Amino acid sequence: MLFIMLSGKWPAKQRKIAMLVNQVNLLQRKFEYCSPRLVARHDLKFALKLARDAIVSQSNRPAESSSVNSLNETCVICLEDTDRSQIFSVDECQHRYCFSCMKQHVEVKLLHGMVPKCPHEGCKNELLIDSCRKFLTSKLIETMQQRKLEASIPLTEKIYCPYPRCSALMSKTEVLDYSHSLMGSEQSVPKKCVKCHGLFCFSCKVPWHSGMTCYTYKRLNPNPPAEDVKLKFLASRSLWRQCVKCNHLIELAEGCYHMTCRCSYEFCYKCGAEWKDKKATCSCPLWQEENIWLEDHQDDEDEDDSDYDDDFY
């Protein structure tokens, strides 16, 4: 479908797709000759490798005699000549990209709950926070710190503060050591959040139930809190899917059913079946048209209204 649009046989109506097609057309004009070809999915990596090798060979060409050109460097992602002061070099591998492309790359990875790594294909080097301060906003830096913290704590060690105004992520070992230094190591004593210092039950994962055992508390409170009930109802009504590995809730705003959770677990949004080696283990369709053309339908509705007056997780 996308190839048909790029070849000009079918106009792109969705805003994001139209922007992509326009960007590809602009890039095509930079070449002396360009002939688009539809590549099979299993040949995609080979095609990308050829493309990257060609780009690198062009960007590493001998420097021009002009002093102006010598101050510029071609970003191998956007193919734009950029002032070298605006080029970012990854600390470990020294792969180089412009600030604009790096910012977009990091934003997408953080949005998907992942720790950003070098954009170069096959490179596993993680980006350092201090180095990324050159092109990231303070809010993105804070999000990146949170993602690195989440990734540093194993799933079996993660624990969250039960107080809604805090909800700090901690490791069980961290909580036990912090509480032991303050109140002792007895199982019956409350544990303390390292951030808000609120007392909570390590076994029940709820605010501290003073004067009663865990068994008594669970017997007197058999039903989940009202907030949890509301969340479960909202998730069911909105058709949200919960990751079976980390229990994170995911909402499909638009796109295909292949989900990649922030914990890196891949599954089918429609039925929850796991994806293995980038392949589905279920027979569900890859997408539904209303999810792919969501913006088109909305644009059509807006146009109809104008006749009278005017995801991803």
UniProtKB/TrEMBL annotation:
Its cofactor is Zn(2+). GO terms for molecular function: nucleic acid binding; RNA-DNA hybrid ribonuclease activity; ubiquitin protein ligase activity; zinc ion binding. Pathway: Protein modification; protein ubiquitination. It catalyses: [E2 ubiquitin-conjugating enzyme]-S-ubiquitinyl-L-cysteine + [acceptor protein]-L-lysine = [E2 ubiquitin-conjugating enzyme]-L-cysteine + [acceptor protein]-N(6)-ubiquitinyl-L-lysine. It is an enzyme of class 2 (transferase). GO terms for biological process: protein ubiquitination. Its EC number is 2.3.2.31. InterPro entries: E3_UB_ligase_RBR, IBR_dom, RNaseH_domain, TRIAD_supradom, Znf_C3HC4_RING-type, Znf_RING, Znf_RING/FYVE/PHD, Znf_RING_CS. Pfam families: IBR (PF01485), RVT_3 (PF13456), zf-C3HC4 (PF00097). SUPFAM superfamilies: RING/U-box (SSF57850). Keywords: Metal-binding, Repeat, Transferase, Ubl conjugation pathway, Zinc, Zinc-finger. Residues 71-294, 75-119 form the RING-type domain. Signal peptide: none annotated. The keyword Transferase applies. Belongs to the RBR family. Ariadne subfamily. Might act as an E3 ubiquitin-protein ligase, or as part of E3 complex, which accepts ubiquitin from specific E2 ubiquitin-conjugating enzymes and then transfers it to substrates. This is RBR-type E3 ubiquitin transferase.
